[in-house]
Amino acid sequence: MEKMFIQSKDNKYYKYLKKFLQKKYRYEENLFLVEGPIVFKEAIKYMTPSYIAIRDDKEEQYKDLLGDRDYFIFPSHLFNKISDSQSPQGIISYFPMVHKKFQEKSGKFLYLDKISDAGNMGTIIRTADAFNLSGVIISEYSCDIYNPKTIRATMASIFRVPIYFLKEDELIKNNFKIIVSALEDSKPIKECDLSGDLILVIGNEAHGVSQKILERANLKVKIPIRDSVDSLNAGVAAGIFAYEMSK
After folding, report:
1. Domain count for the chain
2. Which one, 70, 121, 160, 182, has least CB within 10 Å?
3. Apex CA 181: angle with CA 175 and CA 182, to 5°?
4. What is the pLDDT of residues 55-80, one digit of tens each?
5. Which domain holds residue 30?
6. Are residues 87 and 121 in the same domain?
7. Which one of 47, 70, 96 terminates a domain?
8. What's the rounded Cα separation, in Å, for the pair 125 and 157?
């Protein structure tokens, strides 16, 4: 185990790790940051971190968790600059990105069509994990799954659930049964057959599922709710759909 003390904002490693707060650099380096000990403890069961940053006052507390891994030690004023959290827990780890291109031939998947809220994105990934779905497919214009807020909301599920990227046009050409969540011309979810291989599409929080996907859909489903309520939060709706898909 080796550790390196970082004392200056001019240090090359400080500058390098700080870049991962920006989406551009995460994708350039194919790495994303994970904050906190709980997610780190779960993540290392599946992947090896490329870098670990520790706040100097937390080194002793996380000694057993770190094991024989190398890490950087930062004073608080520098550590807080590489953290996205308002209340940093003193450990940040950096892992290789987990997504891959969708090429599956069977299974049950959620497709997130331009989901814009990072918290919703993370919640849906965690929900897919809870109900043992085959994976989550992300559309081209959804928010970044590697946004630190998304990662926090997944509570490490991003390391367990297969994550795929798939453009809208590729989804439309896919041979899977496509089911979309829609308020109009749709059947209540409990009346629908969700057996077999399928992709269920969750639409954008404000605009719903795109017209192209609606036209391609094999089935439109809805969750019956009171007339006085316009719609459900995307994360809540995904949870209900995922539960029905898991039966």
Report:
1. 2
2. 70
3. 120
4. 999 999 999 999 999 999 999 999 99
5. 3-96
6. no
7. 96
8. 7
Beta bridge partners of 95: 32
pLDDT of res. 129:
98
Angle (nearest 5°) at CA 119 between 103 and 32: 60
Q: Is 50 helix (H, G, I), strand (E, B) or coil?
A: coil
Let me know: does 145 contact 179? Beta carbons within 8 Å: no
Q: What's the CA gap between 92 and 94, in Å, rounded?
A: 7
CA dist 102 → 165, 169, 171 (Å): 6, 13, 9
* Residues lower than pLDDT 70 in the chain: none
CATH number of 105's domain: 3.40.1280.10
- Clarify whether residues 109 and 67 are in a common domain: no
The Cα 161–Cα 128 span in angstroms is 7
Write the CATH number for 20.
Answer: 3.30.1330.30
